[in-house]
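debug: dumping io for the single-chain case to check the tokenizer round-trip. Nothing else runs in this session.
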Amino acid sequence: MTLQMCEEAAIAAIAIQAAHRPPRPPQAQAGSGIEPAAALTPLDPEIVSAAIPAFFVGRNSAGLWVAREASGRIGGLFLFRSSAVDFADRQSAPGKCALVFPAETFELDTENQGNPLVALAAQWLDAVKRRAHVAAR
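debug: decoded output
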């Protein structure tokens, strides 16, 4: 399988996944209809020990899975939830980590150290969304 075939398969899978997501209610954000990303706040030290790494695992606005270490040191984009959880486990080896699954979407705010093909697909989806938003006007 060539790299181009892998990229096309990843993009197709993301598009299918995004098409089957239920629509989100519009937010009051200057008429854009796009839900703002949640701001990830530090975890309460009484809940999670500093000795145990914690990772936020959830979806971003494109529907991709994001795994981000709670302090923002490392993170990545993934097509599957299980891949995001595996990434968190690998980054905290040899021990385990605490996983936090926020209900709100959030964006990766660090360099992507996850799946590079998914990052390319995310850029492509953002460009498609921008074009669709401009065309809808």
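debug: round-trip ok. The beta strands are 54-59, 65-69, 75-78, 98-100.
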